[in-house]
Amino acid sequence: MKQNESNEKLKISRRNFLRTVGVAGATAASAGLFLSMASTRTDTGPNSKLDDTHPFAPWYKKFDQHYDGRKMRRWNEENRNLMMPLALQAGEIHDNRPALEKSIRDAMGTVTRSFGSNAGLSTGNGGLYSWEPLGITSPPKQRWEGSSEEAAMILKRFSHDCGAVDTGITLLDERLVHSHWYENDSESGEIIISDTAEKPQQLPDGTRLIPSSMKYVIVQLCSMPYDMIQTSTSTIATGAANLGYSMMAFVTPPLAEFIRGLGWQAIPAGASTVSVIPLAIAAGLGEYGRNGLLINPEYGPRVRITTVITDLPLATDNIMKFGVQNFCESCMACAENCPAQAIPYGSMTWEGNSVSNNHGAYKWYIDATRCHMFEASNGGPCSNCIRTCAYNKPPGFWTHDPFGLRVASILGGNIMAKMDELMGYGRVLSQEDFWRKKSRG
Ligand code: SF4
Ligand code: SF4
User: Fold this and answer.
1) CA nearest to 381, candidates 243, 238, 240
2) Rounded to an integer, what distance in angstroms lies between the CA atom of residue 75 and that of residue 370?
3) What is the pLDDT of residue 421?
4) Sign (positive/negative) of CA torsion 142, 147, 150, 156?
5) Number of the ligand 2 atom closest to the C-alpha atom of 335
6) If you take atom 6 of ligand 2, which residue's CA is the nearest one?
7) Largest Cα–Cα distance of the chain, in whole Å?
């Protein structure tokens, strides 16, 4: 949707607003909304499987990082010819921006771009994300032992105090481990789950081995500031993404180092090595949305996902459902506001349009090529699919609590998206207003 059209729609009369709220109220009342205070966030129980909520086809293949949208241009000539001019243009746009716009985007990435951890984030096994112990903690004289419940409780406490806004635990599903990692033609290799390797390691030919004993994944969520995202597609919103990556470096390498200090093995995988969204779903942290992102009940899609793989036995979390997929069926806010028109308007499918998609899971597929082309021409990524999502609200907003989630699911995506539009949620926050406004978290 064009911005001026969007703004025009926001200029509503008091009568229209009251009419919409009245319709919503009547719908809610007829649905028996106020008769039940039960939470709509459903624990699907210990026997539920990822495939029950996020099914995979028999022909599904593990993701090969060669096909990552941003890496393809390094080996695929067609992609290079298409993307490189746009990437150069993006760099030029960014370099010529006013200092305030340019500096916030770059400075928010200070932590992630230092210590080699930016490379560690995208391909793994580098900088703070090294598969080798960093030596900050040292191996104990006696390994810490405790029940799996106690271990899970301790790691979640540690993760929270480092800055993760939510943490879940699941088993390492081999289908969600990438088949290959790729940085460039001389830095790449297979990723193998090995029954014989005693520790996580990278062989001289680039092959990475994960011992099969390392079967637990801790999934951590780092939130991005609400107001920064509301400025999308500006560089301030790109700064929010960079801050999210910096926060990942705060929560994941220390958690891995903590586990190593207890005498167990840990890979700070971050957002590399594994497919983080389905793992987050399996760890009970949310559901899959039309925008191709994890939707967390408290933060919506406004999170970065990061992971640690370990052999420390941990109690796992149950999958949670709170109605996102039904909601997204009738809400099109992200698709309508995607400047690249990369988000589908239809139902979920088994395959996407782009070679960069990981086909074979039943979900909504974003056209990654279109998304990356917009990124290149915009001078940086956008966050419109986070900004305009009905589940993205400031902390403390009524839709985050169990009753609010129930209200949202009963009203449905169509009405909620309409109410959002009328009330101005998802509207672009100007850069001037951003600096003047008190932070909403
Ligand atoms: S990041 Fe922007 S261009 Fe990409 S899918 Fe989201 S809204 Fe569309
Ligand atoms: S904007 Fe609407 S359709 Fe898109 S992910 Fe959010 S709730 Fe789903």
Assistant:
1) 238
2) 19
3) 74
4) positive
5) 4
6) 389
7) 72
Give which of 358, 421, 402 is closest to 1, Cα–Cα: 421
Q: Which residues lie with the beta carbon below 6 Å from any ligand 1 atom?
A: 338-340, 342-343, 366, 371, 374, 381-382, 384-385
Lookup result for tokens 């992971």: 307
Pocket of ligand 2 (CB under 6 A): 289-291, 327-328, 331-334, 388-391, 413, 417
Residue among 168, 161, 196, 112 at smallest CA distance from 287: 168
CA of 30 to the centre of ligand 2 (A): 24
Helix (H) or strand (E) run with residue 6 in it: helix 3-10
Instruction: Give average pLDDT by consecutive 10-residue segment, the chain, 441 residues.
Output: 38 35 39 34 76 93 92 89 84 87 91 78 90 96 97 98 97 97 93 97 97 98 95 93 94 97 97 96 96 95 97 96 90 94 96 92 93 83 93 74 67 73 79 86 73
Closest alpha carbon to 327 in 391, 244, 255: 391
Percentage helix, strand, coil, to 5, in the chain? 45, 15, 40
Which structure tokens are listed for 271? 């957002």
Nearest bound ligand to the CA of residue 352: 1
**Measuring CA to CA, which residue among 352, 382, 384 is closest to residue 368?**
352
Please name the residue whose Cα sits nearest to atom 1 of ligand 2. Answer: 389
CA of 372 to the centre of ligand 1 (A): 8
Question: Which residue is closest in CA terms to ligand 1's atom 4?
Answer: 371
Q: Is the pTM of this model over 0.85?
A: yes
Predicted local confidence at residue 175, as pLDDT: 96
